[in-house]
Amino acid sequence: MRNPVVGSVVLAKAPGAADVCAMEIQAFDIIVIGAGIAGASAAAWLAADHRVALLEAEDAAGYHTTGRSAAMWLENYGPPDVRRLARLSRGFLENPPAGFAAHPLHHPRAVVFVAPPEQHAHLEAMLAEATGVREIDLDELRVRVPALRPDYAVAAAIEEDAFDMDVAALHQGYLAMLRAHGGVLALNRRSERLERRQGAWHAFAGGQRFTAPIVVNAAGAWGDEIATQAGVAPLGLSPRRRTGAIIDPAPWQPENWPMVNDVDHTWYVRPEARTRLMVSPADETPMHPHDVQPDELDIAIAIDRMQQALDIPVSRVERSWAGLRTFTPDRNLALGWDHDAEGFFWCVGQGGYGIQTSPAAGRLVADVIAGRDPGEAGQVLAGMDPGRFHQKQDGEGSPSA
User: Does 355 lie in the same domain as 245?
Assistant: First the structure.
């Protein structure tokens, strides 16, 4: 029988017994560490035919990166493997299973790329490479974004076939899937130790011990820390801060504006809550894993860059936040079995792509672990193989694993 919840610590040790023996032991088929979008989607698909425990260090799932994302689905975002998973995810996001969410997960919104003179050549290169992106006349663009300053852009392009995603509804839908299949979401269970013994992983977290033959590392910015706990070679993950702020763009009414950014992605704005704008400097400041907070300088940079392009007065910032987007060294995801540690599965390095790829990526994790044919999604596995970071390169010294 599957455990519906993980309860409090059971202190039932014999006199003189070691503390580890006092821990309540929860046995599962698979432990997933990290309940952000990557871990939640993987756990949701895995729970259909496995006993799954989803461990989360915080008192709420998705507290860090997932809970601080203003995500859009864009076909031309990320490396080729990421784009493939995004395309395979689109159908789910547009037509989720009955009962998955109370309202639609997507809302159509175009994305505009504006090019000041120094970025014109970059725009031409993007148009030659991208799918579904066309050049847009600046007069047409000003109809869509009337705040555009007349002297900023020399050219622009638009991706019409993009959309906003309801991140909270998507994330909660995965957690509901997990529970519907009898899976366990264990909050306030920060992994403190991870050991392999007698064919099973033992995760010590929050005074309890969780055991399973397989552990899925979906810990985001903490992914390398989890690997180190397990005695597994880290991948060299790089958590990077991304900042956002909400402003009132009055007198403009931005509800139906597209998302606007420059071609080099040094700033962007996106309509928020009908009458507000989210503005970001598209920053990627390296950070250690922690509860990251916004920097006032980044907010000022975002507003300054936006105001060079858009005639929007800003009297105050209504709120601001920051989150960590974590990248692998080559910016592709790391998804697959560790080559040296039995039963250790990587699901990290989502960067800014984790939400729009989560339906296909979560299903892919479940298919690979279950030994099923993943279909077209399987074409990304070679490029996402975590072992690529541990292979010795001629003339580059010793391998890291």
Answer: no
